[in-house]
Amino acid sequence: MAASGPLPVTQDLSTLHAKLQGLLRFLTEALSISSAHTVDFYTESVWEQVVDLPPETVLAALRSAAEAEAQPSEARLQVEAESGSGENVKPDEFMNLKKSHEVQAMSELIGSAADYCGIKQIIDLGSGKGYLSSFLSLKYGLKVYGIDSSNTNTHGAEERNRKLKKHWKVYRRRSKLDVNGLALQMTKERKVQDEIKFKADIEGVCNSSTANQEKMSTSDFLQDFSGSVISNIRKQMENLHVYSHREENLCFENAFSLRDLLPINAIEPTSSSHIPKRKMSEGNKERRKMTSKSNESNIYSPLTSFITADSELHDIIKDLEDCFMVGLHTCGDLAPNTLRIFTSKSEIKGVCSVGCCYHLLSEEFENPHKECTQEKWGFPMCHYLKEERWCCGRNARMSACLALERVAVGQGLPTESLFYRAVLQDIIKDCYGITKCDRHVGKIYSKSSSFLDYVRKSLKKLGLDESKLPERIIMDYYEKYKPRMNELEAFNMLKVVLAPCIETLILLDRLCYLKEQDDIAWSALVKLFDPVKSPRCYAIIALKKQQ
């Protein structure tokens, strides 16, 4: 199916540059907050150096803003929780609810884009455990190559796909039985309705003198009856014969519904007059046929390869053809490299990339005095930010991963654990003379019963002699900083509020890079996921010009 409709209008490069310019002006003042690390909060006197306001003032302002955002988000979550309940196949046998939400939204988008471009082959970079790849192949009948750098992930994906195909086959078989049952039930109900109607007609003839009153009561009865049972069944049957992308509305919680699993002509309507005929596109017909056979042929191939911007796909995929490249939460530099591969390979006609782990991005201007042979960096990508020689820094990029929407609905930051770590750093500096340490404390807080226990376990993990510190000295540090805990809380809330600004900068950089390419017909930044369920919710989408 070739592209047949106009694409949505998006902002041009000059408009995006203006937005970048305004964002850079703001971040010039605010970046110092995002760049500060909470570990050094007390040792470096961060609050006094960067903010220097009463923490109560900052917290009051931020909490009032958070409360204004929380109510609609909580309402949305409640509605989704209620609508998500029911007798559907539970997705958590194969993936958690967060992943199923991501797979449902992204696969629907990719299915539409592949149909729009007339493409059958998908390349899933950083495919991990193969959730998205498996679903695209089984649900949409697409030929998917899932490429991951980990052999463990590749083998796991193969086994997981085998199990999923087995379950898929079972549910297809069950769905056909359900359809037969529906057809039989519908026939029985129609027979009852005909008998009632026939009886009403006879009574109408025999009682012509009082026809008006009798017909009114009988008609009311028939209307209520057909509206309660037969109409519901007929609607379900009609849904099986009406196939459009919007009606497919892929939701993994409902992924095994009858409508989604039935191939073309799985059932015959008992009466064509009751089912409206709609024209089905050739692309959708072909996909439905492929879907019906997808459990019989393996059209998902997990592969192991480390992907860079210079990777040659023909060496990895022998039957490479016109394809669509995707990446769901590709880590660090893999997200920008996905876009670079897309722009450099003529076979790739479209891309949908959702990145994550911004702190693992390589930055060209982070260490300007350090000699480096690297030519292609994770950030920046576009000419505008390269000319500005803009640098975020690792701490700011890490803060970009904070989830503002989750905090707004009450999923707050672990303030006490952050407080423990900041005080520990001051202890290490004063008592051991260490300002920088290569080792990480890790998740000691969840295993500790108190601050004292936390310090003891942390020092042991860091390889420091904890016996030289008596309990009194450790608790003195705790008592010293306990009254200033609200400073750390306010500071971390400021970092959360600024997180979307850093993320927006990174995403706009990638979008501008695509806008700079001559052969890109359309590109956009799309909010693909619910940010409460999946904080890294934005997708970069682009399509090339048709030759």
3D architecture notes:
It is a single chain. Helix 4 packs across helix 5 (131-140), helix 5 (131-140) packs across helix 10 and helix 16 (415-432) packs across helix 18. 55% of the residues lie in helices and 9% in strands. Strands 3-2-1-4-5-7-6 form a seven-stranded mixed β-sheet, sandwiched between helices. It has 19 helices and seven strands. It has helices at 13-35, 46-51, 55-83, 97-117, 131-140, 151-206, 211-241, 245-248, 258-261, 282-293, 313-316, 334-344, 383-388, 394-399, 404-408, 415-432, 451-461, 471-481, 485-515, and strands at 121-125, 143-148, 300-304, 323-331, 348-356, 520-527, 538-544. The chain is globular and about 70 Å long. The relative contact order is 0.15. InterPro entries: Methyltranfer_dom, METTL25, SAM-dependent_MTases_sf. It comes from Monodon monoceros.
Concise overview:
This protein is an alpha/beta fold.
> Given the structure, what is the number of helices?
19
Radius of gyration: 30 Å
- The average pLDDT is 76
- Taking strands numbered 1, 2, ... along the chain, how are they ordered across the largest sheet? 3-2-1-4-5-7-6
Structural class: alpha/beta
Net shape = globular
Give the number of DSSP strands.
7
* Residues in helix, %: 40-55%
The residue ranges in which pLDDT falls below 50 over 5 or more consecutive positions are: 72-92, 179-184, 201-280, 291-298
- Assess the beta-strand content as a share of residues: 5-15%
Largest sheet: 7 strands, mixed
How do the helices and strands follow one another from N- to C-terminus? HHHHEHEHHHHHEHEHEHHHHHHHEE
How many angstroms does the end-to-end distance come to? 15 Å
